[in-house]
């Protein structure tokens, strides 16, 4: 039996529902989990009761009724609980072995907080909670550039002024270990090569531009190298992302959000994929938001969503979850 990927509907007022039928171009088995009322008119869809059999054509829909219809570009707080319920249902299905992974369409975190008291910063933290408080990391991975650009920020959605305090030895070590293990398990890289960016310009230049590298980052990386990990760094972030540099590592661990995401979004804006590392199941997501300003206009670019769905299927094969 082929176990499909579950594509969650995301924010009903965003571009997720209109992208759903275009994901058929990915060429991998998937089902769309959401309220079919939210799909664009004219969408060819078939409701399914179980994940065992998919239709020969059109969009397979696992129905999940919401409180209200959806109007593109206009968030309805009544639908917030439905968005959360869909994520929980998708996790339950994949944890039960009925699906091989999850590809999540974008959510609007403020809408979920305002409409349903959502208590998590985003998808990643909520999925970690549903997986039993798993230790996770966020990877952004390119799909159209060679050598690939894979980045993992050790700190994520916090102010720059908070980064030096948040970038603790434990936080950086956790990001390195989760990335190392995921590259082996999910990406099939038997001996991963990791590059770790310094926090400061020029990686501190021996303490002249910052002391974190001298005070503790060097020692941490030395200890992990002594364990057998192939780690270079701490490296100046401004010289890590041109093609010859990327050829020397399989993933880069960065100190903070923009240090990691600016390179991958510059190199592969339409083909970037968000992968949650460290979960007991596969989860990917397109590297864009709900795009409320263009929702319903038929101009949303499906490339990142297609890339995310394809990567979810590929990673599931690496774990032996696809069939």
Count of DSSP E strands?
Answer: 12
CATH homologous superfamily label of the largest domain? Isopropylmalate Dehydrogenase
The biggest beta sheet reads: 12 strands, mixed
Topology-level CATH name of the largest domain: Isopropylmalate Dehydrogenase
- What integer value in Å does the Rg equal? 20 Å
Enumerate the strands of the largest sheet in spatial order, edge to edge or round the barrel.
Answer: 3-4-2-1-5-12-11-6-7-10-8-9
SS-based class = alpha/beta
What kind of oligomer do you see?
single chain
The backbone outline, from C-alpha atoms, is: globular
Order of helices and strands: EHEEEHEHHEEHHEHEHEHEEH
Helix segment count?
A: 10
Q: Report the sheet-strand fraction.
A: 15-25%
CATH architecture of the largest domain: 3-Layer(aba) Sandwich
Using the coordinates above, name the CATH class of the largest domain: Alpha Beta
Look at the structure and give the mean pLDDT.
95
Question: What share of residues is helical?
Answer: 25-40%
Tell me the span between the first and last alpha carbons.
6 Å
């Amino acid at each position: 039996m082929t176990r499909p990927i579950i594509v969650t509907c995301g924010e009903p007022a965003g571009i997720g529902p209109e992208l759903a039928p275009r994901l058929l171009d990915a060429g991998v088995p998937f089902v769309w989990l959401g309220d079919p009322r939210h799909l664009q008119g004219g969408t060819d869809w078939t409701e399914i009761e179980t994940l065992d059999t998919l239709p020969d054509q059109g969009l397979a829909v696992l129905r999940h009724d919401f409180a209200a219809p959806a109007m593109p570009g206009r968030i309805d707080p009544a639908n917030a609980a439905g968005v959360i319920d869909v994520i929980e249902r998708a996790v339950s299905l994949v944890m039960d072995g009925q699906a091989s992974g999850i590809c999540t369409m974008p959510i609007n975190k403020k809408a979920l907080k305002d409409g349903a008291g959502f208590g998590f910063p985003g998808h990643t933290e909520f999925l970690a909670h549903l997986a039993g408080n798993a230790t996770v990391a966020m990877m952004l991975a390119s799909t159209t550039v060679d050598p690939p650009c894979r980045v993992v920020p050790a700190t994520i959605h916090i102010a720059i002024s908070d980064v030096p305090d948040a970038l603790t030895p434990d936080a950086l070590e956790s990001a390195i270990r989760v990335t190392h293990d995921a590259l082996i398990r999910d990406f099939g890289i038997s001996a991963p090569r990791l590059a770790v960016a310094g926090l400061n310009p020029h990686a501190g230049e021996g303490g002249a531009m910052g002391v974190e590298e001298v005070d503790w980052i060097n020692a941490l990386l030395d200890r992990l190298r002594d364990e057998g990990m192939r780690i270079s760094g701490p490296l100046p972030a401004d010289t890590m992302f041109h093609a010859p540099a990327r050829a020397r590592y399989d993933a880069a661990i960065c100190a903070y959000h923009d240090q990691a995401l600016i390179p991958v979004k510059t190199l592969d804006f339409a083909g970037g994929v968000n992968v949650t590392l460290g979960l007991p199941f596969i989860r990917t997501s397109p590297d864009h938001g709900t795009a409320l300003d263009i929702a319903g206009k038929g101009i949303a670019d499906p490339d990142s969503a297609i890339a995310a769905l394809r990567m979810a299927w590929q990673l599931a094969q690496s774990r032996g979850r696809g069939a």
